[in-house]
Specification:
globular
Length: about 500
């Protein structure tokens, strides 16, 4: 086999994992024959003569290609240029790290990934200014719902320094938009590198929820030769009228593009805040702050209007809801509008609302690594909530369609980490957190494919040849083995996008 970009005619000697093998002619290794981007035939290994380019599996396991159902593509790609702050133990520590961070070509310092909710001190302008001086400095929270700026950055962005320097929700999103608005030639190069890394993990597609008019960006990237992943991109409310006027429908290919790899996705609406910023809309108040139940960024009646308009125009909906109150309103809006689509995150869900996902046909687009990242935060900040936090198993048991993602850059774009967190509910040797909410490995694998846990991808004649070869059976792997999974090859429509 030559290398990335080559078309594969036959995969020889592969073992097939999970539900994908249910219709196979043998329990042993098979040869898989591809033609015109689809699986043409499957036979016991050696029974038929190989044809076309041959990819030897050498006993590795063949699985359907993986998807990440929630990525902020440009923001994740730009992490490569930004100072990572996940290890910062306090506001003072984070500020000192940024004081030594490199200055980017535009004269700014940008850090990302800090988690301040359990810090012993609070972010203040005085602390950050003392370490960073007159160089505009920006620290983006791991949840992306707040940004900590020094005085120089506040002045640069048109804000009056207020002694704190922390912007939350809509003002924070606006700062992220500005920071992400870089030279397209630079951004597209970083996106291409991000896509190659994703392909090396067995990913064949992702849902891009960048806060921008994404069709033009993907048209430009496809025109520049991007061919590594399939993409479905979101449309935010400020662009909904434009999308309707221009006739965009969910599933449509990017207009004028040379390939159908990028397609219109869903209307994305952010209805509440986040756990880390303490703005997720909840039925019970946050500890020590009896008047803080979080933020409902979109009134329920406005949400219904947006979703009704999108549905009438042929667009599905992806509704960000983290707190239980936000999830209740989102499910109500699906029922009232007749919309189809997903709730993004569903991190805290009332017991009575969980079966509504399946009854309404609303997908649960969830990020299992967040449960591991936020376990201590959840136990501290949501201790008084009566709804269920991160209820993967309960959602699955009631028939909800689980769709796994990363929310990169909130968590790294790594489907194996998501599967490990979903099944084992732990990382780094700690005891499992709420293990009763773990799902089985077959559910986790299915949730990491395009159709989700209720639409298991089959490896069978006629199926699109979006495939990955991995070193071990994902259904029999331990937590550490899943996280360390090696992908030998990834195929997109029978074409190699990764070859180890």
């Amino acid at each position: 086999m030559s290398g990335v970009g080559a078309s594969v005619g036959t995969i020889t000697g592969a073992q097939v994992s999970g539900a994908a093998r249910r219709l196979l002619p043998t329990d042993g290794p098979v040869d898989v024959f591809l033609r015109d981007g689809v699986i043409a035939d499957i036979a016991p290994a050696g029974a038929l003569r190989p044809r076309g380019g041959v990819l030897g599996a050498a006993g590795r396991w063949l699985i359907p290609g993986l998807w990440d159902h929630h990525v902020h593509v440009v923001q994740w790609a730009l992490v490569a240029q930004r100072e990572v702050l996940g290890h910062a133990e306090s506001a003072a520590h984070a500020a000192s790290i940024m004081g030594e961070a490199p200055v980017l070509s535009d004269g700014r310092r940008i850090g990302t990934g800090y988690r301040d909710a359990l810090w012993p001190d609070r972010p203040t302008l005085e602390v950050l200014d003392a370490s960073t001086g007159d160089i505009p400095t920006y620290l983006i929270n791991a949840d992306v719902h707040s940004v900590w700026l020094n005085s120089a950055a506040l002045r640069r962005e048109g804000h009056i320094p207020d002694g704190v320097g922390v912007l939350r929700e809509a003002p924070a999103f606006e700062i992220s938009r500005r920071l992400n608005d870089i030279d397209p030639s630079v951004g597209d190069r970083l996106v291409a590198a991000m896509a190659r890394d994703a392909a090396s993990r067995g990913i064949v597609g992702l849902v891009d929820l960048d806060m921008a008019w994404n069709e033009s960006a993907w048209d430009r990237r496809l025109g520049g030769g991007f061919d590594t992943l399939r993409v479905e991109f979101g449309i935010y409310p400020e662009f909904l009228d434009r999308a309707i006027t221009e006739g965009l429908h969910t599933g449509d290919a990017v207009r004028g593009a040379s390939s159908g790899l990028a397609r219109v996705g869903s209307l994305k609406v952010i209805t509440d805040g986040s756990l880390g910023t303490r703005t997720a809309a909840c039925s019970h108040a946050y500890p020590g702050d009896p008047h803080n139940h979080g933020v409902l960024a979109v009134p329920p009646e406005t949400l219904v209007e947006l979703m009704t308009a999108a549905t009438g125009a042929g667009l599905s909906c992806a509704i960000h809801a983290i707190g239980d109150l936000a999830n209740s309103h989102a499910l109500d809006a699906f029922a009232l509008s007749g919309a189809v689509g997903t709730i993004e995150h569903a991190q805290l869900v009332a017991h009575a609302d969980i079966p509504r996902f399946a009854r309404l046909g609303v997908g649960a687009s969830v990020q299992p690594e967040h449960a591991v990242d936020d376990r201590d935060l959840t136990d501290a900040i949501w201790a008084d909530q009566t709804a269920l936090p991160y209820p993967l198993r309960t959602l699955a048991d009631t028939g909800a369609n689980l769709l796994f993602g990363s929310d990169a850059p909130v968590s790294p774009l790594d489907p194996w980490a998501a599967m490990a967190a979903a099944v084992f509910r732990t990382r780094g040797g700690r005891a499992p957190w709420r293990p009763e909410q773990g799902v089985d490995a077959a559910t986790a694998l299915a949730a990491s494919t395009h159709g989700g846990s209720q639409a298991e991808a089959a490896i069978e004649p006629g199926a699109v040849a979006d495939l990955a070869l991995v070193e071990r059976d994902p259904l029999a792997a331990s937590e550490t083995q899943l996280r360390a999974m090696t992908v030998g090859a990834t195929l997109l429509g029978g074409r190699l996008t990764h070859l180890a």
